[in-house]
Amino acid sequence: MARNPYQDDRGNKDRSITNVAGIGTLSGLDEGGEARPAPGGPYLIGENMTGGYGKGADILHGCTISVEKGEIAVIVGPNGAGKSTAMKAVFGMLNLREGSVRLDGEDITALTPQARVAKGMAFVPQTANIFTSMTVEENLEMGAFLREDDISGTMSQVFELFPILRDKRRQAAGELSGGQRQQVAVGRALMTQPKLLMLDEPTAGVSPIVMDELFDRVIEVARTGISILMVEQNARQALEIADKGYVLVQGRNGYSGTGKELLADPKVRKSFLGG
Ligand SMILES: Nc1ncnc2c1ncn2[C@@H]1O[C@H](COP(=O)(O)OP(=O)(O)OP(=O)(O)O)[C@@H](O)[C@H]1O
Ligand SMILES: [Mg+2]
């Protein structure tokens, strides 16, 4: 299963969960409506990524992560497995010694993170993902710094997705609860109108109810055709909404498959999902 993680059965095909079919003419869908990879390969793929920080030892060892349009791909694994490092590698914050990153068929391995944002990638890091002394509204405006068009429509969409942010828009983001701060961080990323949204542990430190709500919002975002690449500590719940899942172990692909396959795999359950 781990051999060719980006070419096996992609997703649970449950269109009540994600809108794999709702991505219009750009999608490479055939008459039957079944999703299949675009001619150039997956929408996003970090392939065979090997590298580490600075001149330090390699953290990633031939790691491959991919996601299709409108899909939710989830990375799980133990602390220190390299999940955040894999996200940084995909976003261009790490020099890869081997491997490549391709977005919509284009090799973007050499691009800076800023250039990747311009290509449609948005990244919400695990920590320090909002400006605490700025208001909620200012945080959202900061998210749109690359845009020169009218951002008010996108701001309204973010407020529709996260109504509490509209109520608290004049409040300093640092005064919000943990779950609300994560909404600010996700909202700020959405202000760039990304095609790919990368979230590193968006539910860290929030209650189970808030986690469920945030996952519902993530599903809603995916339904609009935006691809989601998400690292999650709440592995079981995240895999339940995942079209595709990756278990990283010591910088390598340990297991991969659809969310359902991983949830049903006895070895994955025993080692990574608490039985
Ligand atoms: N900025 C850094 N400089 C040097 N080494 C780092 C840096 N960030 C992470 N590492 C190392 O890379 C390895 C993988 O860390 P990473 O943060 O990617 O793990 P993770 O799977 O995201 O863990 P967690 O579940 O705790 O978030 C660890 O050994 C860590 O010490
Ligand atoms: Mg991490």
Question: Helical amount among residues, as a percent range?
Answer: 25-40%
Q: What gyration radius follows from the Cα positions, in whole Å?
A: 18 Å
Strand order of the largest sheet: 6-7-8-3-9-10
Give the percentage of residues in beta strands.
15-25%
The tally of strands reads 10
Main pleated sheet: 6 strands, mixed
Total of DSSP H or I helical runs spanning 4+ residues: 10
Mean pLDDT: 88
Shape: globular
- Look at the helices and sheets and give the structural class: alpha/beta
Would you identify the regions where 5 or more consecutive residues have pLDDT less than 50?
1-37
- Cα(first) to Cα(last) distance is 20 Å
Ligands bound to this protein structure: adenosine-5'-triphosphate, magnesium ion
- What order do the helices and strands follow? EEEHEEHEHHHHEHEHEEHH
Walk me through this protein's architecture.
It is a single chain. The protein has helices at residues 83-91, 113-118, 136-143, 152-161, 163-167, 178-190, 208-223, 235-240, 259-264, 266-272; strands at residues 44-52, 58-67, 72-76, 98-103, 106-107, 121-124, 196-200, 227-231, 244-249, 252-257. It is α/β, with parallel strands linked by helices. A six-stranded mixed sheet has the order 6-7-8-3-9-10, with helices on both faces. It has a four-stranded antiparallel sheet with strand order 2-1-4-5, with helices on one face. Helix 3 runs parallel beside helix 6. The longest helix has 16 residues, at 208-223. Residues 1-37 have low confidence and may be disordered. The structure holds adenosine-5'-triphosphate and magnesium ion. Adenosine-5'-triphosphate binds at residues 53, 56, 59, 77, 79-85, 126.
